[in-house]
Amino acid sequence: MSGGVMIRSARAVLAPYLFVAPFLLSFAGLFLGPAGYALYLSFTRYRGFGVARWVGLENYAVVLGYDAFWIMLGNTLFYWVAHAIPMMALALTLAIAVQRKAIRWTRTFKTLVFLPQVLASVATALLFQTIFGSHYGLIDRLLGFDTPWLTDPALSRWTVVAVLIWRSTGYWFIVFLAGLTTISPEIDEAAAIDGASAWQRLWRITLPLLRPTLIFAVLVDAIVTLRLFAEPNVLLGKAGALAPTAAAPLLNLVVEQMRGGMFGAAAATGWLLFSLIAVLTFALFRLMRERGA
Q: pLDDT averaged over the chain?
């Protein structure tokens, strides 16, 4: 093999890696490096200065012994399940209605549904704070009530769910609509000619073919919700304080531990959350593979 051929062959092999090199370098520097350091800190006692002292699994044992950890973890899982089910159903229903031309002025409708996604999380939370606020809130003023939407833990968690549904529906509506465009209309037309009703075509054809998109949506929405922070704290916090423990997401515990100089415990909490997300991701991918999606 001549030298010129060898050089061209080497260039052909190295070219793809050169194109992805910026991403790999940034991923290693901005994620893998900090994540590895946080993993090391999770096994140490460190106050942000001085020497980190190795304590093994002590931080994990301490964190798992916190009542606040389990309360906040329960809140986070509640926010995910309580908003994901109605939100996914609503987004899918709207996408099917648009795809089947059951709604007129589709361009305007798409824009209006997607608009909440454009707003910043803080702006969205402040908007709902105005709607659900006690004494001055829009709902209480219209209905003449004085309901503690933002102070009663039993109600405040549902206000956060309302924010998440309102904010997330538009995004997944667009994703589901894109997924529906990959399904050939000829399949639906053939089933209709064979006498299948609209419900049968939806249940037996559309949803099975849309399964990969649905699993992707559940997975990504779970990851995003488990890392929830801004909405509940802006909506339920007072005078710059974080949301109360009864309605706080799990990331609040990380912030509180870092404020208290417990960097090792904060790193352990973060890795416990990462482990939960990893297990959930593995379970959903396993489900997708078993169902042939």
A: 85
Q: Residue 98 CB: number of other CB atoms within 10 A?
A: 19
User: What is the distance between the alpha carbons of residues 210 and 244, in angstroms, rounded to a whole number?
Assistant: 39
CA distance 278 to 236: 29
Q: What pTM was computed for the model?
A: 0.84
CATH code assigned to 59-290: 1.10.3720.10
Cα-based distances in Å from 25 to 18, 21, 22, 36, 91: 11, 6, 5, 15, 37
Helical ranges in 182-229 per DSSP H: 185-193, 198-201, 207-209, 211-226
Distance CA 219, CA 278 (A): 10
- Site of tokens 């998440």: 164
> Where do the domains of the chain lie?
59-290
